[in-house]
């Protein structure tokens, strides 16, 4: 139980049986099919957030752990935007923050001569997995945006997030002194 008397209970019952007919409720009270593009986007965000949670369960450097926690918070914010249609939460400030973090991390990395194969250190490999889930979440949000209004900043954040996770994976490998495997052109193999 909460120690704060003024703290509101957000969820007190998980099993509601209201989704047994293939529909689910949004936070504004409306109901949509569970395979609606909005729910597909929400599900992909949830999957990404869970994958980032797995990454955070590994012993990461404090700066990366803190950054991933911020990313998880922003993913919940995007989810909130989707759960209440026509809501805008994220602004250019978060987009600028992701870009500046990406620039800081990228400055530590050697330039790439070829494409990187996902892998290396186990944490870096999982970070690459998170990147692919982020790209799917981005595609689901693009699908929804073709039908309904979506915060363009949230779309941009998911796009940048894929890039950020790529360079984070590279940094994890670098800090762990694990070599990156790079793609070798067919004619050179």
Can you put this structure into words, describing what you see?
It is a single chain. With 189 residues, the protein is mostly helical. It is 57% helix and 3% strand. The protein is built from 5 helices and 2 strands. It has helices spanning 37-56, 62-83, 92-107, 122-147, 152-175, and strands spanning 23-25, 31-33. Strands 1-2 form a two-stranded antiparallel ribbon. A hairpin with a 5-residue loop joins strand 1 (23-25) and strand 2 (31-33). The longest helix has 26 residues, at 122-147. The radius of gyration is 19 Å and the shape is globular.
Strand order in the sheet with the most strands:
1-2
Instruction: State the end-to-end CA separation.
Output: 61 Å
Can you write the helix and strand succession as a string? Answer: EEHHHHH
**Total count of helical runs of at least 4 residues:** 5
On the 0-100 scale, what is the average pLDDT? 88
Strand runs, count: 2
The 3D shape can be described as: globular
* Radius of gyration from the alpha-carbon trace, in angstroms: 19 Å
Q: Structural class, from secondary structure content?
A: mainly alpha
Helix content: 55-70%
Any chance you could write out the topology, listing elements then pairs?
Layout: E1 23-25, E2 31-33, H1 37-56, H2 62-83, H3 92-107, H4 122-147, H5 152-175
Antiparallel strand pairs: 1-2
Helix pairs in contact: 1-2, 1-4, 3-5, 4-5
């Amino acid at each position: 139980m909460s120690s704060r008397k003024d703290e509101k209970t957000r969820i007190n019952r998980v099993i509601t049986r209201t989704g047994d007919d293939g529909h689910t409720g949004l936070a504004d009270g409306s109901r949509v099919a569970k395979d609606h593009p909005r729910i597909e986007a929400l599900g992909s965000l949830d999957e990404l957030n869970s994958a980032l949670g797995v990454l955070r369960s590994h012993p990461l450097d404090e700066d990366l752990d803190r950054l991933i926690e911020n990313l998880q918070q922003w993913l919940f914010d995007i989810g909130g935007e989707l759960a209440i249609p026509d809501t805008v939460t994220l602004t250019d400030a978060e987009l600028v923050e992701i870009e500046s973090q990406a620039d800081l991390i990228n400055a530590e990395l050697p330039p790439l001569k070829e494409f990187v194969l996902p892998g290396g250190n186990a944490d870096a490999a999982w970070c690459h997995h998170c990147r692919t889930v982020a790209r799917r979440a981005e595609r689901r949000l693009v699908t929804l945006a073709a039908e309904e209004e979506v915060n363009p900043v949230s779309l941009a954040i998911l796009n940048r997030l894929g890039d950020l996770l790529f360079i984070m994976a590279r940094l994890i490998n670098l800090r762990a002194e694990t070599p990156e495997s790079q793609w070798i052109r067919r004619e050179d193999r």
